[in-house]
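Project outcomes to date are best conveyed with an example. Our students and postdoctoral researchers have been running inverse folding experiments weekly, and each run begins with a structure described purely in tokens. The record below, which covers 417 residues, was selected by the lab manager from last quarter's runs and is presented without edits.
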């Protein structure tokens, strides 16, 4: 959940949450400081990144891709350990199908880049009056790859391909998805351990925050409590999505002021980062009163939707079939059909790993087969416009025996965490 996320769009983040919270939350935020940090797995190390490069190169050879260019972002971190922001200046890695990669960066950034570099790679620099894509083209020519297919990581910005093309008149720029996406989607044991730790921290933060909710609290109050607990437990937190009342009927909420009242439907949708890996968990509950018949019915139906999804998520099944199974049940219960409301207006789940949302999705029409190491959210929410919505979200990963949860879904609307 880095950068401009869906949560930061509608919620408060960081200092904003603290400065805008009411006095009702200050005690719970202070109490979070007494929580003990969890023991965390080690961050991804050099040996794992070397293996990633090797897997990528094997896929490049299999898919006739001569080299791959990855600019700043999660994929650059994934392969090299370099955590860098995107600007008009290129910092990236060029991975050839054989041999050692190079890192391209501005001359004045070299010391900072060298400090973070977690693999064996030459650093080639460019000055402000030079074209960095020529450095890339020159390297490809050295490797006799300038006439081959050059893969672009799917989030690379257009100007990179646009300025590389004139440098490679005989080359062809293609998608690097058969390489980068394919490697990143299949998580290793080390990655899964970090995601498990992130999930454990988020559940513990919810467990601290839920009993602290009081009448009159704002969404910023509750987010501040969750954030303080998350940080005390050892996770990084850049803001969550907390919704109250009718706002829960809209998946990403509203900017309208929301305060907790007796009988309010409340939604926590939060996660954290542990050494670069994410959690994403949602819980819905009714505060200060027994759930109404309708609230309980919808909560129970949504919980059944999660069960249907996890049963459908089997090795080899198309990712879209999970969404189809849930949507068929919802339609039989009177929701929809399809993505219509009241019902489920968004996909059943999304990929997750270094990013809170990453390929592929559990969405109608997605044909990618589920495979060992893939990780997804399971969140087939039910939304009643003008009333309320229920969303439970737990992430899972695929094992040879089928799906396994990082966090266990709650038992009832009365025991949300």
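After processing, the design step wrote out the following sequence:
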């Amino acid at each position: 959940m880095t950068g401009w996320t869906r949560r930061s769009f509608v919620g408060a983040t960081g200092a904003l949450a603290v400065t805008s919270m009411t006095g009702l939350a200050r005690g719970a935020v202070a109490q979070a400081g007494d929580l003990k940090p969890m023991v965390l797995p080690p961050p991804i190390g050099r040996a794992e990144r070397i293996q990633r490069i090797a897997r990528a190169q094997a896929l490049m050879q299999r898919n006739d891709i001569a080299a791959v260019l990855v600019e700043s972002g999660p994929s650059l971190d994934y392969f090299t350990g370099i955590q860098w922001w995107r600007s008009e200046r290129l910092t990236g890695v060029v991975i050839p199908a054989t041999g050692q990669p190079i890192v391209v960066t501005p001359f004045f950034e070299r010391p900072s880049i060298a400090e973070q570099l977690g693999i064996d790679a030459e650093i080639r620099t460019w000055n402000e009056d030079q074209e960095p894509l020529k450095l890339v083209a020159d390297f490809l020519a050295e490797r006799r790859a300038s006439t081959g297919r050059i893969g672009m990581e799917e989030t690379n910005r257009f100007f990179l391909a646009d300025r590389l093309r004139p440098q490679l008149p005989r080359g062809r720029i293609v998608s690097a998805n058969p390489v980068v996406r394919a490697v990143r989607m299949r998580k290793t044991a080390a990655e899964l351990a970090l995601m498990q730790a992130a999930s454990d921290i988020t559940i513990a933060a919810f467990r601290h925050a839920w009993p602290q909710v009081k009448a009159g609290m704002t969404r910023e109050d509750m987010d501040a409590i969750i954030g303080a607990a998350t940080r005390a437990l050892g996770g990084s937190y850049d803001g969550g999505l907390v919704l109250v009342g009718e706002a829960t009927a809209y998946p990403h909420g509203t900017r309208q002021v929301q305060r907790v009242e007796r009988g309010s439907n409340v939604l926590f949708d939060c996660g954290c980062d542990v050494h670069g890996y994410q959690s994403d968990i949602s819980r819905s509950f009714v505060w200060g009163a027994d759930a109404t018949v309708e609230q309980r019915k919808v909560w129970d139906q949504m919980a059944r939707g999660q069960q249907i999804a996890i049963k459908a998520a089997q090795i080899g099944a198309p990712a879209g079939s999970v969404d189809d199974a849930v949507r068929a049940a919802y339609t039989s219960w009177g929701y929809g059909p399809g993505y219509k409301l009241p019902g489920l207006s968004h996909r059943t789940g999304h990929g997750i790993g270094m990013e809170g949302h990453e390929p592929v999705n559990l969405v109608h029409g997605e044909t990618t087969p589920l495979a060992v190491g893939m990780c997804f959210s399971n969140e087939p929410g039910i939304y009643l416009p003008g009333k309320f919505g229920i969303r439970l979200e737990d992430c899972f990963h695929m094992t040879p025996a089928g799906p396994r949860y990082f966090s266990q879904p709650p038992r009832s609307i009365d025991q949300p965490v």
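Confidence is low (pLDDT under 50) at residues 1-19. The CA atoms of residues 306 and 378 lie 6 Å apart. The training component of this project remains on track.
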